[in-house]
Amino acid sequence: MPSKPQDVSKSNISPVLFMTVDGKPMSFYLRPGPAKCKLQPLITAGGGILCSVQQPGAILLMEPDDRGSITENTSHWFVSTEYIYDCIEKDEQLDVAYYMLVPEAAPRQSARLNSNKEGSPGLSGGRIPYTAEEDDAILTYVSKHKAEIGETGFGKRWRSSV
């Protein structure tokens, strides 16, 4: 998805568009690149700040095409650059939550290391899922030893049994 064209001149942007209700400028961070060059004049014309380094409280912007580099654990940190364009287009500060980037769907894999050298071509050195037999063995073991394991000793107890 390419960035929206810059069809708005800086003079049409409200000078308080990217300011908080307290009158402080909103801070944004975007990795260096062409998108940052396009957005910097727009953000500053709206009273916001585009930081050169990540700072606490800054909204982390990312091009929607780059969402493949987001992990599921960090997806809640990134906001699409479309947020800036849409705020300017509608001449109002929109809800950032609607612009949070969701990572592209990737197949889930087990936490077990792949030690099989003949594994799938894309998974060499990665992780492979447990087999149905291994899943059954784990569940059987846990159900039989619930009382001994407690809440913190499972890993140690399981490793000693295999």
What does this protein look like?
With 162 residues, the protein is α/β, with parallel strands linked by helices. The chain has 2 domains: 90 residues, BRCT domain (Rossmann fold, 3-Layer(aba) Sandwich); 41 residues, no CATH class. 28% of the residues lie in helices and 8% in strands. The chain contains 5 helices and 4 strands; from the N terminus they run βαβββαααα. It has a 4-stranded parallel sheet. Helix 1 links the parallel strand 1 and strand 2. The longest helix is centred in the last third of the chain and has 13 residues. The protein is elongated and about 70 Å long. The termini are far apart.
* Overall pLDDT: 76
What spatial form do the alpha-carbon principal axes imply?
elongated
Helix and strand composition category: alpha/beta
Counting DSSP E segments of at least 2 residues, the number of strands comes to 4
Helix and strand topology:
Elements (H helix, E strand, L loop, with lengths): L26 E3 L4 H12 L3 E3 L7 E4 L15 E3 L1 H9 L41 H13 L1 H4 L4 H8 L1
Parallel strand pairs: 1-2, 1-3, 3-4
Protein name: Telomeric repeat-binding factor 2-interacting protein 1
